[in-house]
């Protein structure tokens, strides 16, 4: 992924990372990783939330290629966090 930053990330992940959200499941998943995961899925033409489960087959590859901090979100975490981020 090549966005606007010097590290190849996109601006929306930085904005999402700064957002304060209520306590949530999978606290190791940073809010900034949610847009990166979503864009990664869309780049692969995968628009349904359940396709994020494919990212768990090779966790390190997707973690490195998407530039996410700690781990790939689960389907439910991705869905809930996108909803939370979208409301802010």
Could you describe the 3D structure shown?
This protein is mainly alpha-helical. 45% of the residues lie in helices and 0% in strands. It has four helices and no strands. It has helices at 11-18, 33-43, 59-66, 75-87.
Describe the largest sheet: none
In percent terms, what proportion of residues is strand? under 5%
The number of helices is: 4
Low-confidence stretches: 1-8
Topology of this protein?
Blueprint: H1 11-18, H2 33-43, H3 59-66, H4 75-87
Q: Key features?
A:
mainly alpha, 4 helices
Produce a short descriptive summary:
By secondary structure, the protein is mainly alpha-helical. 45% of the residues lie in helices and 0% in strands.
